[in-house]
Task: structure prediction
Amino acid sequence: MKHLPVKNAPATGSCASGCSRRQFASIASAAAAGFLLTGCGPRRLREMPKERLRQALDEMEREYAAKRGMAVTVADTPPMPDVLFAYALDLSRCIGCRRCVYACVEENNQSRDPQLHWIRVLQMEKEKGVDFRHADPYYNPAKVPEEGHFYVPVACQQCRNPPCVKTCPTGATWMEPDGIVVIDYDWCIGCRCCMAACPYGARHFNWAEPSIPAGELNPATHYLGNRPRPKGVVEKCTFCIQRVRKGRYPACVEVCPVGARKFGNLLDKDSEIRYIIENKRVLVLKQELNTLPKFFYFYAT
Amino acid sequence: MSFVRRFMRFVHGSVRLVLQGNRLYWAWIAVLLAMIGSGVYAYLEQLGTGLALTSMRDPVSWGFYIGNFTFLVGVAAAAVVLVIPAYVYDWKPIREIVIIGELLAVSAIVMCMLFVMVDIGRPDRFWHLIPPWGHLNLPSSILAWDSVVLNAYLVVNFVVVTHILYRAFCRRHYEKRLVVPLVLLSIPMAVGIHTVTAFLYNGLAARPYWNSSILAPQFLASAFCSGPAILLVVLQLLRRFTRFEIQDQAIWKIAELMAYAMFLNLFLHGVEAFKEYYSDTEHLLYTQYWFQGLGQHRTLVPYAWTAVALNLLAFVLFILPAARRNPLALNLGCLATYSGCYIEKGMGLIIPGFTPDTLGEIYRYAPSITELRVAAGVFAVGFLVFTLMLRVAVPISLGEFQDEERPELKARAPAIA
Amino acid sequence: MTRLALVGLLLVALGALALDEAPKSSTAPPPPARAGAGEEHPEVPPPPFSEGIFPCSGCHAELKLNRTRRVLTEMHDDITLRHDEQHRWCLDCHDATDRDWLHLASGERVPFEESYRLCGQCHGEKLRDWRAGVHGRRTGDWNGHKRYLLCAHCHNPHTPRFQALEPKPAPLPPRRPGSEP
Result:
């Protein structure tokens, strides 16, 4: 092809600068394309190979440390084999004291301002039974339980057929092999389809930059759980993934003063959960929606 | 390289065209630019602080932006109201003006995409939706499907419109083998985009107000009356301000089709209301919130009945041939149908779907100033895109804006239709 | 002979040391690899005695035994009994002859550290549930050593009904931007 004169080419006639400009542009664009296409750029955490994931989490730890001025660990504890987590809540025991709500807030680094709670305790009337239309989360008497009322705490039900996972356009939320439905906070685009899809109001959005007062940050985090979240993404209960994958109970289970909360491995026939299913009568919320929650409610009395 | 030069001439010519205009034109452009400026400023504030500047909160997590998005997908789909008579029935009066409908479709899709962009929490991560860098959760995510079909519809309409216009500019006929299949394809695609958008709501078992099979047909019905309402106004404006010839018959036929669409819209709303009120389950709550209010929560009730009144008025005005042919009644009908459908598809769809929320909470949503400014900015972008495209398309259609360089083709008149 | 006796004593002492059950907390068996069905004698923290009240024999060893059912006036009058008080009184649970122990209906003595066996006589389902880890506050490891509490740690044995608590603050209702709280 005939070499067209390049505008602004040096008068010497050699196209040294022109060629090098073209060369640079083509190399740069090829590099960028290669970077993007070969996946060296940002990817879903779910797809990252183990070493790259660990590198990404180390990078996160450095960022958090720089931002918060304290050491933060971001664990990548994998799921245990032959484990499917389940939860059971004793409706005959809950007195609505909300200690679970705030234990969760502290353990899982939820934003204090704007306020974000993963657990919502609903006060219901004994005469009406479980009736969401007349539920009240804003009760504030001097003492609980209030006469004639009972309490139903609601958080993520960790469904086996989760509508939120089905509806997420980017695949930023999925169910892990141990049954916990998790969110990749770095992949979520904040479209809030999952929030519309969740029948339990369990998913919460960071409408503004989350803030945790200095000294209240829990530095022991998991990358799919309680690490500090950015603005504009969705978050929810993860069964305290940072605790349960190490064999511990979730924070809400441990703090409950009346022992209304139970947790365990559905696949272990000797677990508390299987004992409850066998000996108590369990039910799930909004059963007709076929979400198959792993959060059971029962009456131990 | 001559095609590059010709394209540059087209660009130069178009730029010259859009910069020419009378005082009214410049006033219109100025208003649009001011709204865009205000919208950009408000959006930057929203980017900085977060979506907390909107009135959306956890109980009502979609609001004004998504309501507008839904309405505008309908407007984009409404191009089919022109395309079917023009290409399937080859009806000349509409064949001459179908391009206006396609331009409206392009502008509407642009607005739809902008509304999604301003609504998501992390617009910097928009590319997460674009494979291969991103990941589309197909086949299960309806929003993933929606992004595919909306982009495809935009591409199809854009290709058809730009091909026809550019060929006309070049004094050549458009390539029938390209245009006709694409145009015929755009018919099921138009139905498809609005059906998929309806599925976005329809598929959510958590929201009984939306979880109804009737939603997709009802969306299409309201789209086919509200979209052409804009078209009718634009066509009358074009008739008034340009030499573009639009036959009365075309306008009357469109109005007649809108009447049938509005009937279907009213019928489908009616049967939905029957089902809710007669079955009288807890699912009635949402419809009740819309039409009657719940307890002291009556914010939306005036809007509900205003929308019903406007839609009924529009139906009467369009079904009576005498009213259709009366310019005042026609335009009143256009305004009524646009406003009525806008209310019932925006506030009447989104907010009652979330109120009460899944755990029974009632949050009083009303768009914030930020939302209104950003939404106005997005509408202004759409109107500006539409105006600028028309500013170039109309002269091309009239043969006034053509390439000069091929004298051997000067004699041949360009054919748009 | 003396050397033999000494060696014998040493052997006995060593044997005793080997066989002696060390306190459960320091040489407990390693936790199970997965959650167990429950334990017969779970390890529990010390019973929640009031300050200085134990050992009860400190006073009761010298006091005359009075088996008459009555309301106490001279001591322990701060205890209100609201636990089937129509039919039972102190000595139905506390051992009459040695106050450092409780006793079952059969007369068998149980230490305060195993008071759950006493409660379980009437509250059998609760005892079964408690052993399985289903009744009572749950701390520890779901995949290992569960930590148990005694019934008395949460339920005052004299007035076992759970006291009402002050609730933590209600959540803030969502507000539109610019609207007053």
